[in-house]
Amino acid sequence: MFRGATDVVYDYEALGNSISKDLFAERPFNALRYRELLGFGNENIASLGEGGTPLLDCKRLGATLGLDDLWVKNEAQNPTHSFKDRESLLAVNAALRFGGKHVSCVSSGNAAASLAAYATRAGLGCFVLMPATASEAKISQCAVYGARTLLLDGIYEEIFETYFEVVRRLDIFESGAGQNRFRTEGDKTIAYEITEQLGWNTPEWVIDNVGNGSHLYGMWKGFKELRDLGLTRTVPRMVAVGPNGGAPVVKGFKEGKTLPQPSCSESVAEGLMGRWGYDAPLAVRALVESNGAAEYVSDSEITTAMKQLAQLEGIFVEPSAAACVAGLSKLRQDGVIEKPERVVCLLTGSGLKHIESGTEIASKPVHIRNAASEIEKALKSH
After folding, report:
1. Which residue range(s) make up the domain with 96?
2. What pLDDT does residue 264 have?
């Protein structure tokens, strides 16, 4: 059960002598801009142009939440519309490096869809296993890319434990979070980009939607690398946000120990819900090291945050991606985060991944006759 204790390490002394801000600036603004920090040389890399996502100044949302300096990193702008593409870049290219012919993972949706796309790009076979309750859009996305898509009853952890006993006996390069340590390296690129987009400065706070914990830990590792390599002077305080019914990282931070929960309930944030996060110990360590925080949020708070993002800033995200804004609202109300502090929230996936959730926040369309008088009446009434 307790996996994820290993990590990818580098010769940082050698890296410090071979990289610079000027070197990065010569390259396209995407994840491969920082290739040396990912263990890549000049080899050909299977890529879909991931990374380089916008960092948006959200003045209207910030004013609503009582903040002067709020930004969002919109990871829905990645090729398969979630941050998982950064992880798949590393996982699939590691499979190629080690001579793998097939990759596989267990996922609630986004990681599976992303792995399917990148496997196709690299010419690898792909198997993805998903809870049968995953959103139809994510299931369809996997199938469109040609992955062998298996739907199973049970929650993520139950499926993974059974699957792992099987896949370890097969010639398949396991590429899931918590087991494949290369995935987390891709998440570092979010930290690199945020820092560069802010003029090589770090914000006071980075708020993340946390399920397994890999994403948050990877970003923290990236921020520390930039500081230790002398590219920045500071690191942000990290925040984990998860649903009330099952957020092991939040629970582990608040209680001072990371242990599997006996059960979890359902949540509109399907990508975050779980009994256990395989990288929970690493994520909690990142929260402690950064003097960070953690917060639970309810489904109603998540839905409110989705509506605020959509109707104040024009950004439609899935419920799992809006949890960070819901958590920020609570932390601001409690005085944990101060009004003038710079905050970056991670919007991890597109609302088109979970379109059914959009009906809860959408205004109702009005069907009228195609007549000038009816159109004029409708336009004047709003």
Report:
1. 83-174
2. 76
Question: Could you tell me the pTM of the whole model?
Answer: 0.94
Residue 39 within any structural domain of the chain: no
What backbone phi and psi angles, to 5 degrees, belong to 73?
-100, 110
Last residue of a domain, one of 151, 174, 197: 174
Both 151 and 248 in a single domain? no
Q: Is 200 left (phi over 0), alpha (psi -120 to 50) or beta?
A: left
Alpha-carbon distance of 272 to 245, in angstroms, equals 10
* The predicted structure's pLDDT at residue 382: 64
Of the pLDDT bands very low, low, confident and very high (cuts 50, 70, 90), residue 1 is very low
Instruction: Write out the E strands in the chain.
Output: 55-57, 69-74, 102-106, 125-131, 148-152, 173-174, 205-209, 237-243, 293-297, 342-347
Residue 89, amino acid: L
- Alpha-carbon span 89 to 102, nearest angstrom: 15
Whose CA is closest to 180, among 74, 81, 289, 107? 107
- pLDDT value at residue 276: 80
C-beta of residue 284 within 8 angstroms of C-beta of residue 210: no
